[in-house]
């Protein structure tokens, strides 16, 4: 692969960094349940839905079919622990991306149910599930960041920069 090949299109990068901002605001800054928290949550769900559509019809590296592989491919990738020859996400990262998207969407659904559906208003179980999913998302985000940093060092490719510039290079 060319040292400065394009890997992430602008829409993927915009969605990625908008989700970073939404998560940071809702997890660390905004008061849970207030209007701002809800609006940011709904925006995050819209971003996830856009990413899902783009994961089907978007550019080659944006398509889920280019990086979501079966369990055998994930195990083989983790066992070999080597740089994949292709650009984009490796098989393990593909599943992490799905987990992150599912958690954000699920947080939006549980948040909506807690705030907008009378039947669930004040439901402690739903609040616990919502909180647990937020904490699980936080752990998944930490793993995602750690993996990007570690593999940037091991493979000598700045994976974080590629999500800023769109280029896959050193």
Describe the structure.
By secondary structure, this protein is mostly helical. Helices cover 69% and strands 2% of the residues. It is built from six helices and two strands; from the N terminus they run E-H-H-H-H-H-H-E. The protein has a two-stranded antiparallel ribbon with strand order 1-2. Helix 1 packs antiparallel against helix 2. Keywords: Cell membrane, Membrane, Transmembrane, Transmembrane helix. Pfam families: Ni_hydr_CYTB.
Return residue spans where pLDDT drops below 50 for at least 5 consecutive residues: none
Helix and strand sequence: EHHHHHHE
The chain-level mean pLDDT equals 92
Number of helices: 6
Please give the order of strands in the largest beta sheet. Answer: 1-2
Tell me, briefly, the overall form. Answer: elongated
Terminal CA distance reads 11 Å
Helix content: 55-70%
Q: Give a quick account of the main beta sheet: strands, pairing sense, barrel closure.
A: 2 strands, antiparallel
Taken as a percent bin, the fraction of beta residues is under 5%
Q: Give the strand tally.
A: 2
Structural class: mainly alpha
What Rg is obtained from the alpha carbons, in whole angstroms? 17 Å
